[in-house]
Amino acid sequence: MEVNIERNGDKMVCSIMGRIDTSSAPELIEKIDFVNLKELIFDMQDVDYVFSAGLRVFLQAQKIINANGGSMKLINVQPAVKEIFEIVGFSSIMDIE
Amino acid sequence: MFQRWRKWFRRRSLTFRLGASISLCIFIGAIAFWICIAEHTRPIIRSHIEELARHPLYDVASEIQSSVWDAENVATTMKNTLKELKSTDVGMMRNLLNSALQTLIQEENDVAHAWVYVFENENEDVTQGTMYSGVIKDGKFQFKNSEITDFYSLYPWFKEVPKEESEFWSDPYYARDFSGEILVTTCLIPFKFLGSEKYNGLVSVSLDVESLYSYLDEFETHTVGKFMVTTGKGDIVRHPIKELQGKNILEVASEKNSPELTKIGEDFHNGVTGSIELPASTVYDSASILFYTPIRDLKWGVGLVFSKRDFAEPVRYLQIKAILSLLFGMIVLLILVNIICHRSTKPLLELSKIAVQYGEGNFEAELPNIDSKDEIGTMNMAFRRMRDNLLKYIDLVRTAASDKQRTRSELEIAQQIQLSALPVNFPVHRAFEIYAMMTAAKKVGGDFYDFFFVDEDHFAMVIADVSGKGIPAALYMMNAKALIRSTAKTGAPVSKVFFKVNNELCRGGANMFVTAFMAVLNIKTGELDFVNAGHNQPFYRNADGYRKVEVKRNMVLGGLENIKFEAETLQMASGDRLFLYTDGVNEAQNNKGEFYGDERLLNILNQDLQSPFDALNQVKNDVAEFTQGAEQSDDLTMLEILFCQAPEGTFVTEAQVKNVDKVLGFVEQDVIKNKISKENQSKIMIITEEVFSNIAQYAYRKTGMARITTKLTDGIYYLRFTDNGPEYNPQETAAPDLTKPIDERSIGGLGIFLVKKMADKLEYHRENGQNILTIGVKVKD
Prior knowledge:
Number of helices of chain A: 3
CATH topology of chain A: Transcription Regulator spoIIAA
Distance between the termini of chain B: 93 Å
Radius of gyration of chain A: 12 Å
Helix content of chain B: 40-55%
Number of domains of chain A: 1
Strand order of the largest sheet of chain A: 1-2-3-4-5
Number of strands of chain A: 5
Strand content of chain B: 15-25%
Structural class of chain A: alpha/beta
Strand content of chain A: 35-45%
Shape of chain B: rod-shaped
CATH class of chain A: Alpha Beta
CATH architecture of the largest domain in chain B: 4-Layer Sandwich
Shape of chain A: globular
Structural class of chain B: alpha+beta
Largest sheet of chain A: 5 strands, mixed
Oligomer: heterodimer
Order of helices and strands of chain A: EEHEHEHE
CATH superfamily of chain A: STAS domain
CATH superfamily of the largest domain in chain B: PPM-type phosphatase domain
Helix content of chain A: 25-40%
Number of domains of chain B: 5
Largest sheet of chain B: 7 strands, antiparallel
CATH architecture of chain A: 2-Layer Sandwich
Low-confidence stretches of chain A: none
Mean pLDDT of chain A: 89
Largest interface: A-B, 22 and 28 residues
CATH class of the largest domain in chain B: Alpha Beta
Radius of gyration of chain B: 71 Å
Number of helices of chain B: 18
CATH topology of the largest domain in chain B: Phosphatase 2c, domain 1
């Protein structure tokens, strides 16, 4: 997994490439600085697989952003990955495009 | 018969038995009492009756006797007076008779009449004479003078009168009197006139027999007895039974054939006083007693007879009263016994009911409240104590039950020892796959297998068969196994290991030995060192299939000290296998006595290639099929190790999160190779990631191995995950609640949920210390 982060004030775009698996997921959350972060966008264009560890990261991030009073969005989500989000019911609590 | 009664009696209730026993005792006592009384009263009654009888009898006899004497006196006086006279003078006769009768009457005698008979001639001829008779009638004397010529024809006994001056008493006869016929007995005395040489006549005084009877009648009114009178000749003149009057007693005696009556007749005749008991129907219908005494001058006998019934009546009445009282007492006693018995047995019945409940294990049943200090009270106390003790013992037994299990039978213990010594956690390793099994025979053979890491790179395995059976063999096996393991772990070469173990076993002094095969695999290089101590030759499989390896057979372990063991070495290639077994396999016998044999073993092993687990099970089933229910005579033990650095479709790695990528890479490659659609590929990848990361994070405390095997069969792609972690069945994990709002969402549980969602088949089992999870995904419809 590779992560490319672009931060602009309270806005952040996080582009992920590869698989978000158990070994790489903790890495991802560590890379995001949630201080004063109001808008978080995950670009999922190059993500093939999201596993439960990855899902937990997104859940965690969503909770923090909610606490910050901001918003989180997942964009360019591949159909296979989107299905996973739907299966675990995340599509109803997250903004997924 | 007696036995049957006794049995019957014993089956009756206590109350009945006690009552019956007491009644019987009382009854026997009553009978004894009755007999005693009867025995004692008989002589008393007898003497009492005698007393009763004697008085009237003697009184009557003396009354009659005195009348007799009076009559005799008068007759003697008359005779003496006539002796003084010279001639016969009617006037003189009249005076004589008058004065004689007056005398008698004055003395209130029973004289009927008196007379003087003067013979006609002087030759003492009684047939001719003149009779001067006088009688007292209405208080006045009457005189009669008659010349009787046929006197003796009337009274034949007349001639019997002896011609001497003594009294002669006639038998009773009916005399014609002035007032008619009366029954008399007459006293006769011959007399001589003054100066006469010969007897000139007879004087006579007659006694009225009826008036004599009046004494008897009078006495009879005072006593229950009846009088009987016989003459000296035995003629019955008076008898309670009127029909017998006038008959001779001796005739009656012979008629009735009664010796008693004969004796009475004789005694009467001889003038004997006495008594005699007469049997029934002699005089009366019942038995009777006769007391008798003679009246001497008359030569009569007077008897007083008592019917026993008469005097026994009051006695019998007394006896009946006594018996009735006894019966009454007995009934009262029986009632009392019944009440007492009932009272004492009622609590017994209650106790017995409670005992039944205790027997059924119900110790809640309350004992009756008996505070008496008698036997029942004591028994109640004993019951209470028994219940308390039983409860204690049950507790003891419960705690002892687990101990008891340990002491079942020797064979079971031996088998337990044997089985408990065998390792069952088969390590999951990237370089090899191992499986072993032992099916113990009922008669323990003492087989064992073992495997362990000597160090990081060396894995040792042992198979052995101890000679002997039972606990000794089991203990010997334990010892041998421990020795081999501990010696091998020093890292010594296998030949040295066996050398040391052999010496140790020999020193142990047990009269046993063990055949063993030991191999140590270098898991990096595949180098296999092995040594055979008298054991079966192993099978080895390479690319050409299984075959028997002829290796150097050494001496058995524990046979002889300081034996040198020769080891050999083999180079294993990836996919090679070593199959070890004991003779329980190839020497298994069927009912016909045929051996399973090496050939059949080789055939089944070569049939198709499977994992060591499946291969060993296949052999086991084939042996069972061969023996067809014949009793297993020896332990069946096998071990197979598969050396596999990278077997197809299998990936073995350390279960660590950092290895997730490698595992996913392996699966991804396999999936692509199998041309599986993108969608299913995604499912398979998710399953792989979730399961492996779950094992990596939770299966081991530190670290362990995980094996992932893939296989595509019948349109289903199978993933098999094997680990040595503690038992964990993902099927039992609860699904997370997906409807909860974000803040309440838990972080965990999603992985397994996803797996379950993706999987078309999911099967978990625990085997050989391994968690084996098999997941199938349909990849073709």
